[in-house]
């Protein structure tokens, strides 16, 4: 009967590795560990101890070149970068890497990196569209394997909302015009508001596609209106507006006397409330029966003016008050001159 021994070695080596010592087993698997030439020796021994050997040469080809490159993101906002990590396995010798990219709708490729040993490449797309990034790996034998990646580039969600006015009178409304750009898909809008000194918000509109919302503050104080925009990915961007709410501007006027003698002086004093900001005052008078108003005091911050009425008759004295928004309110007092 026969027994079989199997040994093998790299052709460049002198030492043999034993895969199977003498055994009646006839089927033996040998798995070389490197892409070189090997010699497999099979020895047959009969029951008399006679041995006959036979050698086989096996050429082990390199493992096929594989492109194992990766990218760090498949979806980015416009202005961000995608990092390509080039990598390979198999093939022959060392590797070089080329990186190109294009819009999916284009036919021409832009080269980010020509063949180089550099493995890390940053690509910054220039438009909010889909891009294809191609990584080519070349080994020292000139074999090339390419790999494509798709990157969705979107513009970052922006809250473009506006309001109709930043200063209103109590009882008026502010119109919110909710708007957005960028992001993904369709938008919904939430509007809340509060007195600036409060911590709790009142909801005027929960998330909705309605983009025009009227807010009517209930007190003459400063309010904050918050508009939140949400895209179809659930991304939310908020935007705050400050609205100054004031009472309606009112004016009042009084005279030091409503009955004076011709040639005497009268002091007119004005005051104001409501409106917005600081006030300026103007005083003028009209003799009843004439059509010409005479300016006794031009607009300034002083609240009173003393002047002389030299002719007898009845006079209408008018006080104009102007607030910081340019709103004007008037008050009148009648003076009898004898």
Question: What does this entry look like structurally?
Answer:
The protein is mainly beta and 338 residues long. The chain contains no helices and 32 strands. A five-stranded mixed sheet has the order 7-14-13-10-11, with no helix packed on it. It is rod-shaped, with a radius of gyration of 46 Å. The model has no long low-confidence stretch (mean pLDDT 95).
What fraction of the residues are assigned to beta strands by DSSP? over 45%
Instruction: Outline the biggest β-sheet.
Output: 5 strands, mixed
Q: What's the multimeric state?
A: single chain
Choose one word for the global shape: rod-shaped
Total helical elements: 0
**Total strand count, please?**
32
What's the helical proportion of residues?
Answer: under 10%
- Structural class from helices and strands? mainly beta
- Order of strands in the sheet with the most strands? 7-14-13-10-11
- Low-pLDDT segments, ≥5 res: none
Report, as a whole number of angstroms, the end-to-end distance: 157 Å
Q: Give the radius of gyration.
A: 46 Å
**Taking all residues together, what is the mean pLDDT?**
95
Map the helices and strands.
Elements lengths: L2 E8 L6 E7 L13 E9 L5 E9 L6 E2 L2 E2 L3 E3 L4 E4 L2 E2 L5 E9 L6 E7 L3 E4 L6 E10 L4 E11 L3 E2 L2 E2 L3 E3 L4 E4 L2 E2 L6 E8 L6 E7 L3 E4 L6 E9 L5 E11 L3 E6 L3 E2 L3 E10 L6 E8 L6 E7 L3 E6 L3 E10 L5 E10 L1
Parallel strand pairs: 7-14, 17-24, 26-32
Antiparallel strand pairs: 1-2, 1-3, 3-4, 5-9, 6-8, 8-12, 10-11, 10-13, 13-14, 15-19, 16-18, 18-22, 20-21, 20-23, 23-24, 25-27, 27-30, 28-29, 28-31, 31-32
């Amino acid at each position: 009967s026969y027994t079989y021994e199997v040994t093998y070695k790299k052709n460049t080596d002198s030492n043999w590795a034993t895969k199977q010592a003498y055994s009646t087993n006839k089927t033996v698997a040998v798995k070389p560990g490197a892409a070189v030439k090997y010699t497999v020796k099979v020895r047959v021994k009969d029951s008399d101890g006679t041995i006959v050997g036979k050698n086989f040469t096996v050429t082990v080809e390199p493992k096929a070149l594989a492109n194992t490159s990766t990218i760090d993101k498949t979806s980015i906002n416009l202005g961000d970068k995608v990092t390509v990590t080039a990598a390979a396995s198999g093939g022959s010798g060392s590797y070089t890497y080329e990186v190109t990219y294009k819009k999916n709708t284009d036919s021409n490729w832009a080269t980010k990196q020509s063949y180089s040993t550099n493995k890390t490449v940053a690509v910054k797309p220039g438009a909010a569209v889909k891009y294809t990034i191609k990584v080519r790996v070349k080994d020292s034998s000139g074999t090339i394997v390419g790999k494509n990646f798709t990157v969705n580039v979107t513009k970052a969600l922006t809250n473009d909302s506006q309001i109709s006015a930043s200063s209103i009178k109590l009882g008026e409304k502010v119109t919110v015009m909710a708007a957005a750009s960028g992001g993904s898909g369709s938008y919904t809008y939430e509007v809340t508001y509060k007195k600036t000194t409060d911590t709790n918000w009142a909801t005027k509109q929960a998330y909705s596609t309605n983009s025009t919302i009227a807010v009517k503050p209930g007190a003459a104080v400063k309010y904050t209106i918050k508009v939140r925009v949400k895209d179809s990915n659930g991304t939310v961007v908020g935007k705050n507006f400050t609205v100054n709410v004031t009472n309606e501007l009112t004016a009042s006027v009084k005279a030091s006397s409503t009955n004076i003698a011709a040639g005497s002086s009268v002091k007119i004093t004005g005051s104001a409330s409501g409106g917005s900001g600081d006030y300026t005052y103007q005083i003028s008078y009209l003799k009843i029966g004439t059509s010409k108003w005479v300016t006794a005091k031009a607009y300034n911050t002083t609240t009173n003016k003393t002047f002389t009425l030299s002719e007898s008759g009845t006079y209408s004295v008018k006080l104009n008050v102007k607030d910081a928004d340019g709103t004007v309110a008037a008050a009148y007092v009648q003076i009898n001159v004898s």
